[in-house]
Each structure stands twice: as C-alpha cells, then as structure tokens.
Amino acid sequence: MKLYYHPNSPNCVNVLATANQLGMQLDLQLVDLLKGAQKDPAYLALNPNGRVPTLADGDFILWESNAIMQYLARKKPGNSLWPVDDRARADVSRWQFWQAFHWTRATGTLVWENMVKRFLNAGAPDPAKIKEAEDLFHSLAAVLDGHLKSRDYLVDSQPTLADFSVAAPLIYAQPGRFPLEKYGNIRSWYGRIEKLDAWKKALPPRMPS
Ligand SMILES: N[C@@H](CCC(=O)N[C@@H](CS)C(=O)NCC(=O)O)C(=O)O
Asked: Which of 49, 57, 71 has the alpha carbon at shortest distance from 26?
C-alpha cells in the first residue's frame, strides 16, 4: 500500500504511528507541500482536496487520516488499536470525530499562526486569530484533561487509534505555543504516547523549535 504523505504533517504522523504499531510497511511517497506538490494535477486526481495523507491500496484510494487509520487497523484483526467491542469502537470514533472537527480547529490555527507562517514568510501572526484559537483550545483542553483524569489512555487501558489521532497535533505543542500549562493530565498522557516506539518512529526527522 502506498501512502502519499509529508513527514511534518500531524495528519500523517497519526497514520504512520498506526502502521508502525500494527507492524505494517507502507510504501511512502513524498508529497512536497513546500513545493506545492499537493496541487499537481496528478496528485489532485487522487485527492481533490490537495492535502495529505492519501492511501492507495491497489485501485482503492482513501483520504482523511482517521479513515485511513481505521482501514489499516481492519487489515490486522485482533489488534488493540481498534477494539472490536461495539462500545469501545464507538468511543474510538467519538474521539477521532472530536479531533477532526474540534481539536484541529484550535491546534491548526495555533500552528499556522505561531509556526508555519514563520517558515513560509507568510506574514506576522494575527493576534485576534491567536486569541480566538487559544480560547477554543482552553475549552477543548478542559474536556480532554477532565477525561484523562482517571485514565492512562482515551478509551482503553492501552493506546487506541483515538490516542494517536488526538495526540498528533501535539507534536507541535511547543512551536505552536499551545497553552498547556494548566492541563497536567494531557501532558502526562502525551508523555506516555511519546514513549511508544511506534510514535517515535512516526515523528518528523527534523522538528521545528
Ligand atoms: N482532515 C484531513 C486534514 C488533512 C490536512 O489538512 N493536511 C494538511 C497537512 S497537516 C495538508 O495537506 N495541507 C496542505 C495544504 O493545505 O495545502 C486529514 O485528517 O487527513
């Protein structure tokens, strides 16, 4: 299976960590976002959103990182990343939807304003957008931190797809200036994710500071 990816994309780190944890080898195809390769007509034919990641399994093309993670997990029955119990599986989906719809709105804006703009020379950070994203971040982080108060991982006693999806944006917590000070449970949980070999192997080789 081919994964069209960029090593610095959090939405690729979650997929790579999943493949690593499942012991799967993906044929990695770089889409150079810095050169605009995501807008090449050949790539847009695979993924009309012009974003990474995209998985190609023969003639089956799949985009959206959470869908890709579930698809990979289905290929390895009996794994602990995507439990088969109906409620546990629904719980994993709950957090993956929460990540895609809510969490990345806050974290994505902070990463763009505080980090990516600097790399792309795309102008000064916009204080109003940062304030709005920080407010959203606090309301969401309070939910996540509260949930993690009595748990080591989001759904199970071991990591699931939910943990990889929700943890992925945190790879840029520092350069993105995520206001995490008050959220000790999130920091401890992310510390546990960071210790996993599958996660370490999925991280970009060079991390911006
Ligand atoms: N919801 C999508 C988001 C994908 C996404 O936004 N990818 C970013 C990188 S993290 C991208 O390709 N950006 C390129 C662009 O916007 O031009 C997923 O989870 O796969």
From this structure: 57
Spatial separation of the C-alpha atoms in residues 56 and 1, rounded to whole Å: 6
In this prediction, residue 206 carries a pLDDT of 82
Q: Is 0.85 topped by the overall pTM?
A: yes
R_g of the chain, CA atoms, integer Å: 17
Q: Which amino acid is at 51?
A: R
Q: Is pLDDT of 65 > 90?
A: yes
Please determine, for residue 209, whether its predicted confidence score (pLDDT) is greater than 90.
no
Residue whose CA lies nearest to ligand 1 atom number 1? 64
What is the pLDDT confidence band of residue 207, given thresholds at 50, 70 and 90? confident
Residue nearest atom 15 in ligand 1 by C-alpha distance: 51
Q: Give domain 86-202's CATH architecture.
A: Up-down Bundle (1.20)
* Pocket (CB within 6 angstroms of ligand 1): 9-11, 33, 38, 50-53, 64-65, 100
Domain ranges of the chain: 2-74, 86-202
